[in-house]
Amino acid sequence: MKAQSLVSGFCSNPTTPSIPNTKKSIFQAPTPPSSAYFSQSRKWVSFKIQHSAPQRVWCNKQNGVEEVNDGTSHGNDLEYGVRRKKLAVFVSGGGSNFRSIHKASLGGSVHGDIVVLVTSKRGCGGSVYAIDNGIPVVLFPKTKDEPDGLAPNDLVAELRKFEVDFVLLAGYLKLIPVELIRAYPRSILNIHPSLLPAFGGKGYYGMKVHKAVIASGARYSGPTIHFVDEHYDTGRILAQSVVPVLAKDTAEELAARVLQEEHRLYVEVTTALCEERIIWREDGVPLIQSKENPSEYR
Amino acid sequence: SSIAVDTLQAPTPPSSAYFSQSRKWVSFKIQHSAPQRVWYNKQNGVEEVKDGTSHGNNLENGVRRKKLAVFVSGGGSNFRSIHEASLGGSVHGDIVVLVTNKRGSGGSVYARDNGIPVVLFPKTKDEHDGLAPNDLVAELRKFEVDFVLLAGYLKLIPVELIRAYPRSILNIHPSLLPAFGGKGYYGMKVHKAVIASGARYSGPTIHFVDEHYDTGRILAQSVVPVLAKDTAEELAARVLQEEHWLYVEVTTALCEERIIWREDGVPLIQSKENPSEYR
Fold first, then answer.
1. Main-chain dihedrals φ then ψ at residue A118, nearest 5 degrees
2. Family assignment (chain A) (predicted)?
3. CA-CA distance, A238 to B132, in Å (whole number)?
């Protein structure tokens, strides 16, 4: 029975600062709204990794993990060593997840800034909020309805100008062009309002997802955040949260319950992303490293 | 419609080691004509139940003890679990026959050891004593089977059986259907696929079997977490614990006639303590 081993996604990047080994403490995760239904014990598990020096994290080759070479020194506070990230958010509609992440960014829990909003629909709720908050808006893609939209390569160039580190899809209904996926490998996240792979794929968006969940008789649902790769719907799952589906639920009631979890989950994931706490397991599954206890993952 | 929501003190599933699932029951507004009967108001989209038999206060006094057929291909741990619950009294029914496709399977050995007749199905090159579909139906009719419980049965259920037992065949699958279901998804393959996908939750699903096989309506599910360092075997063990608990809970409800069909065709389990609440 082979235990899972880890590869850090940042091991091969020499400019990535290493994360200091913080002392062990009990991780008190903030309680999710779903605790109204469950008390999810946010179970963290430890992986066995070798520590050479207190200020550095080495990934032992024998555990199937690459070695980190990093000469920079760091203080105890994670934020002193980790660069503040630049985020692009893509929306097609109201942008409630966008607003939620933006507030967390202003509030300090997300160690990053939304530097640009990309939308497929001029005048959508998300773009109005962006403009009201001084965030530049880019229209993509170019279509008959939106002739001012950018072409794929121009979109990539624009995001590069903004020095975007990560792309967060938050209710974006158009197809992500392969040029973008190639320009930002392992750097594009999407959120979907069901427990993927269930109720995903073509035609499954918005309220259609929740209607399908109820019609199937499924007793549980919840958001999934996953990386976007060239295979679209099959990108690796990074995080999920569970809510119950009740016997008398309408699609709207279920949608509201899932949306509450979407907001919480996307902020939690974006926080981890900006603090470079996304670690890749050997089989390609991305894990979130605990902030309080770096040897624990979920 | 006004809905009263109570927190029902249900027996705790094993998954409560990870979650404290408040088994939330919800009320539908239904008209009660007499204390001993439950009527469902058509306006809520629920079908009317017509039942002429009289019932005492104890449900068991009025409800006939059910006859169950269980189908297994392997060890039969769910079969054994339900059998124990039947002997123990929590399941208001008896397993009257075991059907297996593999002579000498663990499940068939346990059946023989416990005086339960064993039927071989289907007929194949490897098992030439196996029955033909119509003979299987005839055999189950002889046993006066009310419900068929598939518990790790790997062969296809013949359409003759499905037509003979509409809304009476249940199956258990070790993932949260519709995820990780369909052709090729059985046993350890399911758990490996769950882990490989990065899914953070899994758990058993019990569903009715209709002519469309994998798309029968879901009757019950239970959730367990998938941990970052889980092997397929560890996840399988965690799900199996929930399978046993869930199949006993569902079979109990089935035998007590507490499966109610919502207007859109989704089956619900009616609370025993509070017949106006469902999940």
1. -110, 130
2. Belongs to the GART family.
3. 48
Q: Is the pLDDT of residue B231 over 80?
A: yes
Distance CA A101, CA A90 (A): 12
Instruction: Give kind and range of the element (H or E) at residue B259.
Output: strand B259-261
pLDDT per position as a tens digit, B20-42: 554 555 555 433 333 333 333 33
Q: Which pair of structure tokens corresponds to residue A13? A: 């990047």
SS3 A220: strand
Give the max Cα distance, chain B.
59
The ipTM is 0.82
Neighbouring CB atoms inside 10 A of A160's CB total: 11
Distance CA B149, CA B168 (A): 8
User: Which one is catalytic: A192, A210, A226, A263?
Assistant: A192
- Are B264 and A215 a contacting pair at CB < 8 A? yes
Active site residue A192: yes
Range list of β-strands (E), B73-212 = 93-100, 118-120, 147-150, 169-173, 201-202, 205-208
**Structural tokens at position B49:** 């139940």
pLDDT at A43: 55
| Pairwise CA distance, residues B113 & B131, whole Å | 22
Of A40, A45, A244, the CB nearest to B229: A45
Give, in order, the Cα–Cα distances in Å from A49 to each of A57, A221, A287, B263.
Answer: 9, 34, 15, 55
DSSP result, A3-19: PP-EEETTTT-TTSPPP
